[in-house]
Write a structure and sequence with these properties.
Blueprint: H1 19-22, H2 39-45, H3 52-61, E1 65-69, H4 75-85, E2 95-99, H5 102-116, E3 124-128, E4 131-133, E5 141-145, H6 146-155, E6 181-185, E7 192-196, H7 204-218, E8 223-227, H8 231-246, E9 255-260, H9 266-273, E10 281-286, H10 289-292, E11 299-304, E12 307-314, E13 319-326, H11 329-337, E14 345-349, H12 353-358, H13 374-382, H14 399-411, H15 425-431, H16 436-448, H17 451-461, H18 474-484, H19 490-503, H20 508-513, H21 518-537, H22 549-560, E15 564-567, E16 575-578, E17 584-587, E18 600-608, E19 612-619, H23 622-628, H24 630-633
Parallel strand pairs: 1-6, 2-5, 3-5, 7-14, 8-10, 8-11, 9-10, 11-14, 17-19
Antiparallel strand pairs: 3-4, 12-13, 15-16, 15-18, 16-17, 18-19
Helix pairs in contact: 4-5, 7-8, 13-14, 13-15, 15-16, 16-17, 16-22, 17-19, 17-21
The chain binds adenosine-5'-diphosphate and magnesium ion.
Length: about 650
């Protein structure tokens, strides 16, 4: 604590970020009043408003227009409305706007609906995976994730429903210009003073909490935005601050502490955006979602831990992990900029200036270079882009990842030896918004007569966990799990939970008593409904195997045969080796097969902490492996010359 510089005491040199360093512009604008009274007035105050006519003119005359502007300038919420107002959404056509994250899609849709005075799902709607809140013929502005748009392009490569009369084609009659036009929207930002810790902090979570308390003690009104990494550290920090604020007599009772991460319920999300009540100071503790996609009005102070959760994929071990890693200078500047929205702000960095200058990398590694490419490859193939090695990537992925993805898809019989999508399997998989291994499992279930059960399993695997996580109550949870436990493993156990939930009449009390996450189960029911509509469209007939767990396990294997592991013969501690790469792995303690240690298992995913743990495990008979995937065990590589 003493290591941290205290606001209001001996101040280190404040720094104002300038646009030379990172392209973030901070223009001190002498606007004094910032009222929240009228939504329309708020809209007109946004930087893009001044460019409304210019934007509409450019869109009318160019087939591509690029608009560059600082976060919060109104690109996402305003431009779709301008287009709609100018008649771009007439005649059954829509204006589409993509966002990188589901949470951002939902949040901006509800904001735009509010500005237009309509309900979400009417004139303004959104589509994310497993949730479609649009009505054909009614919805004029539609927000969606990049992933959903890509999928729509498979059915409709020219995206005709988002185009106007002239189809957006640059032809002589249409008078459209082919070269893209670029418009820069001047930002409205205030200067932000940057403060660093004087010595490196050992515990960024504790430091973040201390810093919030110091800000509250020393600084004038204004909300605080804290950047931590994920649900775990965010929940912990929220709890610590809520405890301090609980004491009504204390000076900290004015703190209103809220978490922000994906997976929050809609009402929790709304709280984040409601105006802070008088006499209160809102503290939002967020993942990097608040860095670029969401703008919180009223933030004057930013606390930057210097870390974020990032996805890293290792194509050799085929393990994808979310790890807490240092952010880049570009991110740090973006985070600081969040403090200068309504008036000059301050950013408190929980790392030293020396570290920032000398060690922090200038830019992060593009996501394409640290992800599993399996889904991207299928999408490219489905779009008819065959030559993926020659594809003009913005950031070329590593060749190991590409080869690994092709191998997986070939072994799943989604790509054939010429690296083309197979018929019908490859094309069916491309239509499903799921991990291709899960899609393959569903397709196999059709043949094995257990599609009802497998759809339930797929829906459950798509939520984070159906169990509540209660700190320190592991014992109680383990006992309850035994009520549902199936000797075959976790997937079959999940089916028992689902059955129980339906029998209870989808009752929240029943969930509470059984340590089951009610919201997750409701999500499972919705997702399952969406999935069954989708698979019926693909010609898959819904059928139950009436408790034939062998059929269920064989269907799982059809997708996950490459995730088989064998128990080490003389292992005392339950060590397994993966069949694919002889990696040392263990059954995760949350599995019903933990300590049971069947000889052969197939897992859903690997998660690495102190060891590599298999999550969601079923017991199998090894002879089924060869039956399910003879080609995999004598893997013929597809011809590399063809990619
Ligand atoms: P950009 O896309 O340029 O980053 P946005 O269009 O997302 O900017 O945001 C413009 C402004 O709209 C923000 O500065 C903020 O004032 C307001 N805004 C956006 N979303 C919400 C919301 N959910 N609640 C309240 N205000 C919002
Ligand atoms: Mg935006």
């Amino acid at each position: 604590m003493s290591q941290f510089w205290k606001p209001g005491t001996e101040r280190p040199r404040p720094r104002i970020i300038d646009d030379e360093e990172g392209g973030v512009l901070f223009h001190p604008t002498p606007t004094s009043s910032y009222g929240y009274s009228n939504l329309e007035r708020q809209r007109q105050r946004l930087p893009v408003f001044k460019y409304r006519t210019a934007i509409l003119y450019l869109v009318e005359h160019h087939s591509t227009v690029i608009i560059v502007g600082e976060t919060g300038s109104g690109k996402t919420t305003q431009i779709p409305q301008y287009l709609k107002e100018a008649g771009w959404a007439e005649g059954g056509r829509l204006v589409a706007c993509t966002q990188p994250r589901r949470l951002a899609v939902q949040s901006v849709a509800s904001r735009v609906a509010e500005e237009m005075g309509v309900k979400v799902g009417e004139e303004v709607g959104y589509t994310i995976r497993f949730e479609d809140k649009t009505v054909q013929g009614v919805t004029k502005i539609k927000f969606l994730t990049d992933g959903v748009l890509l999928r729509e392009m498979m059915d409709d490569p020219l995206l005709t429903k988002y185009r106007k009369k002239n189809d957006g084609h640059a032809t002589e009659e249409s008078g459209l210009k082919t070269e893209p036009s670029i418009l820069s929207v001047e930002g409205k930002g205030y200067p932000v003073e940057i403060y660093y810790v004087q010595k490196p902090v050992s515990d960024y979570l504790q430091s973040a909490v201390d810093t919030v308390l110091l800000i509250h003690e020393k600084e004038p009104v204004g909300d605080v935005l804290v950047f931590l990494t994920g649900q775990d550290d965010i929940d912990a920090a929220v709890q610590m601050l809520v405890e301090v604020a609980r004491d009504k007599a204390s000076q900290f009772s004015g703190l209103l502490v809220l978490p922000l991460y994906s997976g929050l319920s809609g009402s929790d999300q709304d709280l984040i955006f409601t105006q802070t009540p008088r006499g209160k100071r809102k503290v939002v503790i967020s993942t990097n979602i608040a860095e670029t996609s969401l703008t919180l009005e009223g933030v004057v102070y930013v606390v930057d831990s210097g870390f974020s959760k990032q996805r890293f994929y290792n194509p050799i071990s085929d393990i994808e992990n979310l790890v807490v890693a240092p952010i880049s200078k570009a991110s740090a500047k973006q985070r600081a900029g969040r403090a200068g929205r309504v008036r000059p702000g301050k950013c408190f960095r929980l790392y030293t200036e020396d570290y920032f200058v000398k060690e922090m990398p200038a830019e992060g590694i593009p996501e394409m270079q640290r992800s599993n490419l399996v889904s991207s490859v299928i999408q490219l193939k489905a779009l008819g882009i065959d030559n993926i090695l020659g594809f003009n990537w913005l950031a070329s992925p590593p060749p190991e990842s590409m080869i690994r993805a092709l191998e997986v898809l070939y072994s799943l019989e989604i790509l054939d030896e010429d690296a083309k999508l197979t018929t019908p399997c490859g094309f069916q998989v491309a239509e499903m918004p799921l991990d291709p291994m899960v899609s393959k499992m569903i397709i196999a279930a059709d043949t094995l007569g257990c599609s009802e059960e497998i759809l339930t399993i797929a829906a459950i695997l798509s939520v984070q966990s159906i169990w509540v996580s209660v700190r320190g109550k592991h014992k109680g949870i383990d006992e309850v799990k035994l009520r549902f436990a199936a000797a075959e493993g976790d997937h079959v156990t999940h089916l028992n939970v689902y059955k129980g939930f339906l029998q209870s009449g989808k009752n929240s009390q029943w969930c509470y008593k059984n340590y089951i996450n009610y919201h997750a189960m409701k999500k499972v029911v919705d997702t399952r409904e969406q999935l069954s509509r989708l698979v019926r469209r693909l010609g898959i007939v819904l059928k139950s195997c009436e408790g034939d767990t062998q059929a269920i396990r064989k269907a799982i294997l059809a997708g996950f045969f490459s995730h088989a592991s064998q128990l080490e013969e003389y292992s005392q501690n339950g060590m397994y080796k993966t069949v694919r790469s002889s990696q040392e792995v263990y059954i995760h303690p949350s599995s019903v097969l933990f300590r049971v240690n069947p000889k052969w298992v197939v897992y859903h995913s690997l998660v690495s902490t102190d060891k590599h743990y298999m999550h969601n495990v079923i017991a199998i008979d090894p002879s089924w492996l060869i039956e399910a995937a003879p080609h995999f065990y004598q893997l013929k590589r597809p011809n590399p010359a063809l990619f």
